[in-house]
Amino acid sequence: MRQVYRSALWALPLAALWIAGGTAAQNTATPLEELGGLLYFDVNLSEPSGQACASCHDPETGFDDPDADLPVSEGVIPGRFGGRNSPISAYAMYAPILHFDEAEGLWIGGQFWDGRATGDVLGDPLADQALGPFLNPVEMNNPDKDHVIADIAISAYAGLFEQVWGANSLNNVKKAYDQVALSIAAFERTPLFGQFSSRYDAYLAACLANGGGMDDCAKGQGKAANKAMKRYFNQKERRGMALFMGENDNDGKLTAGEGAMCAACHVADWTAAADYALPVQVPEWAPAGMVPPVFTDFTFDNLGVPQNNEYPLPAAAPPDLGLGPIVGDPDENGKFKVMPVRNIGLSAPYAHNGLFKSLKDIVHFYNTRDVPGAGPGGADWPPAEYPATVNHDELGNLGLSGADEDALVEFMMTLDDGYKQMGRKPRSR
């Protein structure tokens, strides 16, 4: 019997998709979104059966791979592994089409660590991304598009597919395959993927309700922010928030008023939903039409992450060049997407190659990469996988103490979705 993958969260009826903090309008899935959800969770769309999109992007782990023991994900064929850590699908809808921002002098947007799902094919980076895994021999291993569409044609939701895309739509394989990707993208734009249901969001809503300004609340500044923080954050988390937002000269000395430079790329900025070319989620508690901070600017950077030779990654693999080959510019070699920090506590391991097994590990790396003897076992950190373009200006010698690193970790874990005490004081740790 054909089966569809179900997590505990996905056991909810599709037609009444419930998301914490959503509006009544948000909580009703359209036929297109329902179809996308069925495709997303169907383990029968791999060869052999057993692998769904949700296998590596599970809602119960922030839409990341639930197996945190290996740096990369295993595909449907045992022993076949990808070359990069599975990125989080939550909040991916906020990434624009890959483009070069002339004012900033930076590439922005796209999907995957290297931005290769640009959005230029189907007009949506999420849809472009969904085109790939079905045919990837390391992931879902289908031999061709015909095989995927044939499996959908015998599924229990084949009728829904034709309801959404038209009678006999499954007869045109090329067009139907694109429609599969567009359906999944529509599902990935539902409230399930943009919940804004973390403890930070509970704090943010309380701060706004107390009369705080959007930017002050987002960054933890002002009387309204202080009042709300005392309600939702312990002292260590408040310290972590200040560090996260603060700038740093990266000279190894943490002076008064300096922080960890996290918000330089993981920006705590509000955006207007109207500024997005495609639909995005806005929580009910936010000011009208405004998207709370997603904590990324969707740019690309080379953090100097060392090569990961842990099984199943090959020790002799050439350096991963990231964005450079995608945009045809060697100056972009070694740069990878700045991912959202939301749900980061649920999504170990970290970095594009899964080198860091804990959030503390990668925070320590950010802080001490260029400090002699600060690496594993008291040794120097290994050299960067691609040294030529490493960012030496904003990280590597921040001067944070071990307690500061711990505080940053504590704050970032308040960004995990699923906070169940909206409006209540959290339990002490």
Give an overview of the whole structure.
There is one protein chain. With 429 residues, this protein is mostly helical. The protein has two domains: 9-193, Orthogonal Bundle (Cytochrome Bc1 Complex, Chain D, domain 2); 196-429, Cytochrome c-like domain (Cytochrome Bc1 Complex, Chain D, domain 2, Orthogonal Bundle). Helices cover 27% and strands 3% of the residues. It has 13 helices and six strands. The chain has helices spanning 31-41, 53-56, 125-130, 145-153, 158-165, 173-187, 199-209, 214-219, 223-232, 235-245, 323-327, 359-368, 402-412, and strands at residues 99-101, 106-108, 271-272, 290-291, 300-301, 336-337. The protein has a two-stranded antiparallel sheet with strand order 1-2. The protein has a two-stranded antiparallel ribbon with strand order 3-4. β1 (99-101) and β2 form a beta hairpin. The longest helix has 15 residues, at 173-187. The chain is globular. 49% of the residues are buried. The model is unreliable at 6-25 and 422-429 (pLDDT under 50).
Helix content: 25-40%
Strand order of the largest sheet: 1-2
Could you tell me the CATH topology label of the largest domain. Cytochrome Bc1 Complex, Chain D, domain 2
Low-confidence stretches: 6-25, 422-429
How much of the sequence lies in strands comes to under 5%
Specify Rg, calculated over alpha carbons.
Answer: 22 Å
The helix/strand class is mainly alpha
Q: Based on CA inertia axes, which overall geometry fits? A: globular
Q: Look at the structure and give the CATH class of the largest domain.
A: Mainly Alpha
The strand count comes to 6
| Overall domain count | 2
Order of helices and strands: HHEEHHHHHHHHEEEHEHH
| The CATH superfamily title of the largest domain | Cytochrome c-like domain
Termini gap: 46 Å
Count, helices: 13
CATH architecture of the largest domain: Orthogonal Bundle
Q: Largest sheet, if any?
A: 2 strands, antiparallel
What average pLDDT do the residues reach? 92
